[in-house]
Fold this sequence. Notes:
Layout: E1 5-6, H1 7-14, H2 18-30, E2 34-41, E3 47-53
Antiparallel strand pairs: 1-3, 2-3
Helix pairs in contact: 1-2
Amino acid sequence: DDNPAPASDIAEAADTSVQNARYHLEHLCEADLVETVDTWYSKKGTEMTVYALSVEELVIQLRR
């Protein structure tokens, strides 16, 4: 899904913990593959960082 989402939604989609998703999202941000695009608030008022892909396409070439 290419829609922006908070770490909790990404964690649910990846069947992992929110902490694990945040860890990997931080590294993806450092690599400029993901970026923070907004801040949403949960029903309880908790601030949630919203992430989105920062690239449309990624090509990885493997050498033998």
